[in-house]
Amino acid sequence: MAGRRETGLAAAAGLVAGVVTIGVGALVAFLTGPTSDPLVAVGSAFVDATPQWLKQFATTNFGTNDKLVLGITEVVILLALAALAGVLAARRWAWGATLVVLLGAASALAAIGRPDAGSFAGLPSVLGTVAGLFTLRLLVRRIPLPTSSKRKAALERRDFLRASLIAGALGAVALFVGRSLGAAARGAQSARDHLVIPKATTPAAPVPTGVDVGVQGVEPWLTPAGDFYRIDTALTIPHVDPTSWSLRLHGMVEKEVTLSWDELLASDLVEAYVTLACVSNPVGGDLISNQKWLGLPIKGLLERAKPTGDADMVLSTSVDGFTAGTPLTVLMDGRDALLAIAMDGQPLPFEHGFPVRMVVPGLYGYVSATKWVTDLEVTRFADAQSYWTKRGWSPQGPVKTQSRIDVPRSSTTVPAGSVVVAGTSWAQHRGVKGVQVRVDDGAWNDATLAADGGIDSWRQWTWSWDASPGDHKLYVRAFDPQGPQTGAVQGEVPDGATGYDSVHVTVS
Length: 508
Prior knowledge:
This protein is an alpha+beta fold. It folds into three domains: 4-184, no CATH class; 225-391, Oxidoreductase, molybdopterin-binding domain (Sulfite Oxidase, Chain A, domain 2), CATH 3.90.420.10; 402-507, Immunoglobulin-like, CATH 2.60.40. Helix content is 34%, strand content 23%. The chain has eleven helices and 20 strands. The strands form four sheets. Strands 12, 14, 15, 18, 19 and 20 form a six-stranded mixed sheet that branches. It is globular and about 85 Å long.
């Protein structure tokens, strides 16, 4: 039986073997595709299997850092299991080896099960497992036995540490090289860097002066590309070479259409300001951003294909297998529903869908904003389900009218007298027609609206509050052409949160 000290070394041996397994897997995935990387495959399988309550918990609490938290958690769990495998192997080799093989098999199955899995998708997991087993065996044999003399144990321990450092370094280098090569393997970065964005055939209308209220703490009307919220299911960001990209439009159509990258660039492109929002955005949340987009109207593409019968939905598919179901009527009603190639006058960032993504005003992203899009199938809601509707979310997701107080922040103290209250409201493709603020249980007061940047973009507002000393609660509500937003409190599931945003403020 190994002593306490040897148990620690056994756990260390397992950790090093785990690093080697992960590193070799990432290196081999350079050849077989990024989603075949064992870490990515297991993480993606976990995301797909995540129940809606856990997904919502992660989004609410971690926001756009949810994937970082998932990645860290996954690595911690895998390394803990690797350490356990080392301890088991030090006691009986078959026990530790069995755990390693089971983990390798699980990651191989996860990789094979990905929508874009190639013929060798399981190879990184298999070779990583073999390398991990070899490393674990090599290191376990170097752990001093309880019967070893002090001098012999010291020499064996030194030998173990030297071998562990070498193996761990090699595993880390393999991981770094594999991830680095994988990101640039397809020439996507070079293609994006050298892409010249065509001029819009139909430029966006000029933005009127005064869309920003100029109050510190209120998010800019035009969200910087680097600050644009990101919510998707991709653990590894696809790097798609646009020269090999194409879009297939098929299904319930008279004529199947295939669109190449060169054809897209040569088309009549439209520029539009559109605010996108995530259905997981809580009341008062920040999973919403506004930008200028450039792209090809989807309506024209559908008119070329000529939908038939009682088709009522377009199922869009991403290169990584994600799907979204968008109402056909929305894509055909003339709004600026685009196959976007640029935001803010620059090629789409990879994390926001380069080379092509969908942008549809008035719908939550889970039913419309497919990134890295490669396929559009005209079908029916009765015949097909998209990624999130299979998990309990509503098939159709029109954005709900909402308003948010940005200034003052909740739980802050302000001086008595004139206090600026300001924020942002949205009612995409309907337009914000008014905003009101209420203090405690008092009457609603009309706020001053900023200039209108269009019905597809959010709108800022301000209100001057004559604040009296004490603790107060401020509420806000927005109006669209149909009237005020609802104050009924509803969670994000299944089709978006509702209720009045509010902040607690102490007046001194």
